Amino acid sequence: MTTIHNTAIVSPKAKIGKDIKIDPHAIIHDDVEIGDNCYIGPYVVIYDGARIGNNVIIHQSASVSNVPQDLKFGNEKTYFYIGDNTTIREFVTLHRGTGEGGLSRIGENCLIMAYVHVPHDCIIGNNVIIANTVQIAGHVEIDDWVIIGGITAIHQFCKIGKHSMIGAGFKVTQDVPPFIIAGREPLRYMGLNVVGLRRRGFSNNDISSLKNAFDLFYNSGLNFSQAKEKIKETYGNIPVVKELLDFFARSNRGIIRK
Fold first, then answer.
1. How far is it, in rounded angstroms, from Cα 172 to Cα 44?
2. What is the model's pLDDT at position 6?
3. Known catalytic residues?
4. pLDDT computed for residue 67 by the predictor
5. pLDDT confidence of residue 155
6. How many Cβ atoms from other residues are within 10 Å of residue 199's Cβ?
7. Residue 189: its pLDDT value, please?
């Protein structure tokens, strides 16, 4: 059963699914779509362009699909997508994309903790955990199964590869490869995320191959271009290493160092 508190303001043009609970003083604008079995907490504001999946929980005072903090934005029709089974905690700010049809996206089964900012033109994958007060700049890509520690700042256009973990309180100014742990200042490669990979079913052969590939990349004495070629020659037929090489190929801010 859908319940909407009598102090909430819900546009009759908004598309609201089944079994929705909307708490006091929430505001839902015209061009909004919300799936089934969602919870919208008190004082949440959901702006035009929001596209929210099923079983999504949005806690108090979050701002969803607000206009981007981008001087080139010209009030085009843009979007913010939230995938199924994702939780948005209190005071999170989520800004839609720029340019006609532009978008930002958070995937499925994510946890976005309090005071996180996800700005324009960002893509966040599935099963991502972003801890309190992480501040992200525009055009950032965060792949599946990433964990980011609290109070971390991420520079615009950075990419963070899948299954990686970044410690708390760091600055991300270059691309973070998949499968690793990153820490220190400036942010550096700290080793393979072995515990996370084992929890997610990676085989011993996968983990060994990745360790060897990263050893070539960081410890061989080759420059990064030479190391990538050597990894391709030696391990390029192994699927997890191919994923690593694919990430290197789409990196445009450079890869963090050891």
1. 29
2. 98
3. 120-121, 138
4. 97
5. 98
6. 11
7. 97
> 3-state class of 217 per DSSP?
helix
Q: How many residues does the chain have?
A: 258
* Res 196: pLDDT: 97
List the structure tokens of 163.
């299954």
pTM of the model: 0.96
The DSSP line for the chain is: --EE-TT-EE-TTSEE-SS-EE-TT-EE-SSEEE-SS-EE-TT-EE-TTEEE-SS-EE-TT-EEEEPPS-TT--S---EEEE-TT-EE-TT-EEE--SSTT-EEEE-SS-EE-TT-EE-TT-EE-SS-EE-TT-EE-TT-EE-TT-EE-TT-EE-TT-EE-TT-EE-TT-EE-SBB-TTEEEETTTTEEEEE-HHHHHHTT--HHHHHHHHHHHHHHHHSS--HHHHHHHHHHHHTTSHHHHHHHHHHHH--S-B-B-
Residue ranges and CATH numbers for the domains of the chain are: 3-139 (2.160.10.10), 197-250 (1.20.1180.10)
In this prediction, residue 25 carries a pLDDT of 98
* Bridge partner list, 76: none
- Helix or strand run (H / E) with residue 62: none
Check: CB of residue 51 under 8 Å from CB of residue 33. yes
Extract the residue ranges of the chain whose pLDDT is less than 70: none
